[in-house]
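testing teh design pipeline on a random one, pls ignore if ur not involved
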């Protein structure tokens, strides 16, 4: 049974989302403050976190930063952001969130997003369980151990960043639109802002490329989408 941690100080939201998640067979735990969230993740790492931005103690951005940087966890995170606050969505994605949902939202939508992410993670684990490392010039991607080495240094990616990179590496030279990548990597593309892909691609470039502004591997085809290029300049 997959465990989901809901972090929100609004009791009604926690209870309603938990009700729908439990109906779909998930185990649900709760936290109401930033410190409680970190304690919960440390004590029992969940399979997915639904994280509100506005929290007592410290906010969701700080929770996410600590999860990614201090705990070194790649657990998928769906952030809950305020309607109309685009900066919150961008900051959440930049901090390492896998997806976001704007308030007010439909509980069914949150559950659908959670199921899609977990389904994709499970599928990726099955597909890569016996895969051998992909070794290119200055880049090694090891699907089995979820490991990426760039110019001799291991780098840390979130689960979604890794799956995005692995998908592109497995399809060198092919161009994919943002909608196609949402479908292939996130598992859905309805009601999702394509900027989610843009931000994740930018984060990958910052972690992989010598010059993120002039990438060798992760290239943009303007007006079309993105592709992974195999070359000797990485």
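output:
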């Amino acid at each position: 049974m997959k465990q989901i941690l809901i972090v929100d100080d609004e009791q009604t939201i926690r209870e309603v989302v938990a009700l729908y998640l439990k109906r779909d067979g998930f185990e649900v735990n709760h936290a109401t403050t930033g410190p409680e969230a970190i304690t919960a993740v440390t004590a029992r790492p969940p399979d997915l976190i639904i994280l509100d931005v506005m929290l007592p103690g410290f906010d969701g951005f700080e929770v996410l930063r600590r999860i990614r940087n201090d705990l070194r966890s790649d657990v998928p995170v769906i952030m809950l952001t305020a309607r109309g606050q685009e900066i919150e969505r961008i900051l959440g994605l930049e901090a390492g969130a896998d997806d976001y949902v704007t308030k007010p939202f439909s509980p069914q939508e949150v559950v659908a997003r959670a199921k899609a992410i977990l389904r994709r993670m499970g599928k990726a684990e099955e597909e890569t369980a016996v895969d051998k490392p992909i070794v290119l010039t200055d880049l090694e991607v090891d699907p089995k151990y979820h490991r990426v080495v760039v110019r001799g240094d291991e780098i840390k990616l979130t689960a979604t960043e890794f799956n995005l990179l692995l998908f592109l590496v497995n399809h060198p030279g092919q161009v994919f639109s943002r909608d196609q990548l949402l479908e292939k990597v996130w598992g859905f593309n309805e009601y999702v802002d394509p900027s989610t892909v843009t931000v994740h691609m930018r984060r990958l470039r910052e972690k992989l490329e010598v010059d993120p502004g002039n990438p060798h591997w992760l290239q943009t085809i303007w007006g079309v989408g993105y592709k992974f290029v195999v070359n000797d300049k990485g």
